[in-house]
Protein: Sec-independent protein translocase protein TatB homolog
Amino acid sequence: MFGLGFMEILFIAIVAIIFLGPDKLPGAMVDIAKFIKSAKNAITDAKQSLNEEVNLDELKREALGYKEQLDKATEELQGFKNLNPMNDLKEAADLGSVKDNFERLTQREPEAEGTQVEAKQSEEITFKKKTVSDPTLGEVKKENKALKKEAKKKVEEDQAGDN
Structure:
């Protein structure tokens, strides 16, 4: 009780008997018991009202629900963390084997004795620039110029007539 040992309780009882006397001691013990009981009730009521106001249990459940959702989302994102489409393409193409095949195919086979291979002469190919003239395009340009001149003349005549 309150972390007191037998010797401490005995000492308190002897001091209480000396100061209170045998006739007031039973009433004091009852008052002390009532005080302890009311203190325990007050603490219990305070805990209950605090739990009702704060709803700790509900908050704990909600927090655990959010934690579970975050854990699921984290697991899903772990799959995307190392996702690199270039790595997938490199693995699918297997470029190393293509390079090896190219080198193998382009290597010269050993020449047989007495057989000489002549070097191939390079052939030069040149392309000359060719200009293409479209007679209809030139005619359309001339017609557009003539129409513009006629339109200017009409505008000038209209302005002169209005004055």
Remarks:
- The longest helix spans residues 6-54.
- The chain is about 75% helix and 0% strand.
- Residues 55-103 form one domain.
- The helical segments are 6-54, 56-81, 85-93, 95-106, 135-162.
